[in-house]
Amino acid sequence: MKQPQILIVDDDRRILDTLGEYLRGSGLSVVTAGSGSEALRLNNANIDLVLLDLVLPDTNGIELLQEFRSRFTDQVVIMISGAATLTDAIRAVKLGAADFLEKPVSPEKVEICIRNILKTAALEQKLNQEQQKSLARFTLVGESAKIEQVKTEIKAVSETDSVVLLLGESGTGKEIVANLIHLHSKRQLQPFIAINAAAVPGELIESEMFGHEKGAFTGAVQRRIGKFEQAGSGTLLLDEIAEMPPLLQAKLLRVLEEHTICRVGGSETVPVDFRLICATNRNLTEEIRKGSFRRDLFFRINVFSITLPSLREIPEDIGAIARHHLGLLSAQMGKPQPELPDEFIALLQRYHFPGNVRELRNILEHLLIITRTDQLPVEKLKKLLSPDLVLATGAQLPLKEAVAQFEREYIEATMNACGGNISKAAASLDLDRSYLYRKMKQLGLG
After folding, report:
1. Model pTM?
2. How far apart are CA 238 and CA 249, in angstroms?
């Protein structure tokens, strides 16, 4: 294991000799410098920590601190001085010094300080690396105006603890956005917990969210901690919130107002401090009108909403999104990343994508599995796309008109498949019947 390398900068030869000898005896690698110019010559990226005197014969320690911090951003600097003021100490810490020690200092105290600070710095570096890996995993790809707007909104709301409501069709990346908000927030080192209200059976969802006590119901052989408690001081993503039963909606509202929960079968209240992010692909205003979603809960969670665009709204980003996911899939499969011909991208841009990015990723994965060439084949792509959902080539349309044409053709195809039954078509499209009816009128279909 590599021993930490220390640079001691001081014009007092006795301090250099005493500290240097002690720290070397403690297993540290030590280099000494008696002036600022010598320190500038000896310092390099392999030095882990600098013990820097405030007063030097040829320069000021504060100026040297600034130089070192600009050149070696991961390097730790501890200032020492026998004639420092409180103002000096505050200024040094503001400029990046990890600590400020007053002379005389014992070698033992210096060693303890060095090891504690290096341990903390190593942990912070590791956490930063993990965060960068997570940020690389959860990437919002695209440069269109709609995507840039979403990025701006993520940055703004990440700096707060406000409840966030994510809106958009299935497969548009709501969970990715929730993760990005968490990773850019002050809660980034705390847990990120996700629960899909539509994926948990109705009889189990309360226990899943709130937890339960032993004996609360048949099969509850021991206490279980729910998602609300698991989130701790982190972030909780409540996906498909519109699927929550009305009784649980009322309980969630109480949690948000009182910041406490009560486990199923228990009487003790437990404080909670999670940040809530909700997501849905439904129109909550319509759900309120139908009586299936509480108006007061909607007002409580609709503090800051972000609407994610569908793929057909951002055709200019489809090429970049496809290449991004193809790169991830290729790495997972251990295969070289194939090229995407212009004709391939053009066909994707004309496709309706009812499943959005999730559908695009599935198509790419399928083609990557069966392809043995350095390009994904356009002909095989055509076989995977429904002809009814591909916009015909021809004159270029403005984006708004192209989207309307996509919707018109898609709804027509769905209505035909459902024998003209608008209720069945609405269920197939995951839309409210009245909303679909109005949409068809708007598109001139009824």
Report:
1. 0.65
2. 12
